[in-house]
Write a structure and sequence with these properties.
Elements: H1 10-16, H2 23-46, H3 53-65, H4 69-76, H5 78-88, H6 90-109, H7 121-141, H8 149-160, H9 164-179, H10 185-205
Helix pairs in contact: 2-6, 2-7, 3-4, 3-9, 4-6, 5-6, 5-8, 7-10, 8-9, 9-10
Length: about 220
């Protein structure tokens, strides 16, 4: 029996044979993730809902100050670029910077290309939450993030095993508590549903033992 056939070496052999993403894999994966996140955010915004995480925080700040969502979303992520560079490395930080910049720009431009004549709030909450969750999973799996809480949550999961989705859910609970003071109750409740779908998608699917390819 070879070393790799021995049960005690299974984990080591799996790590040694871990497939790598090519640069083309990463480019298409990150681009796809960005577009799916933007689609999800546009659905939520069009229905008058907010998102979770720093995107939700950026939207609340934008509503209170009149600044655009994209500019606020980018600026509040600046401290996390520093954190990501120190903790996650330059490659992760650069790819996350590209993702955040693209999402900030495209979200503000999206109404010029897609407008919804009718959009049910329940459908927008579920599809918007699912799209943002799927998009963020794509970014995670290609070595980047949407920044903010996602960077910290991903780092905590890598170091402790505590699911990234649960870290983000805790943040969202605080965020939506504040949102109740600024938005109609029904809009916040539907937004909370979208955030729940988003976080469940992350917590149930972002696992190292189920996805072993890396950048």
């Amino acid at each position: 029996m070879s070393n790799c056939e021995q049960p005690r070496c299974a984990t080591v052999c799996l790590h040694q044979s871990k497939p790598q993403h090519s640069w083309l894999d990463d480019v298409q994966g990150e681009l796809s993730g960005i577009l799916v996140v933007v689609l999800g955010v546009s659905l939520l915004k069009a229905a008058g809902l907010i998102t979770g995480q720093f995107a939700g925080l950026a939207l609340l700040i934008a509503l209170a100050t009149g600044f655009s969502f994209g500019s606020v979303f980018f600026l509040i992520n600046v401290p996390f670029f520093i954190f990501a560079f120190i903790r996650m490395g330059g490659r992760f930080t650069l790819k996350s910077l590209i993702a955040i910049s693209s999402i900030s720009l495209l979200t503000d431009l999206m109404p010029q290309f897609i407008q919804y004549q009718y959009l049910n709030g329940w459908v927008a909450a579920v599809l918007g939450g699912l799209c943002t969750g799927i998009g963020l999973l794509m970014l995670f799996r290609h070595g980047c993030s949407c920044g903010g809480v996602g960077v910290v949550a991903l780092y905590i999961q890598e170091r402790t095993g505590f699911r990234a989705g649960w870290v983000q859910l805790i943040f969202d609970l605080v965020l939506f508590s504040v949102a109740f003071t600024l938005l109609p109750t029904q809009a916040v409740l539907l937004s909370l549903l979208g955030a729940l779908v988003f976080n469940l998608a992350i917590s149930l699917n972002h696992r190292r033992d189920r996805y072993i390819a890396s950048s």
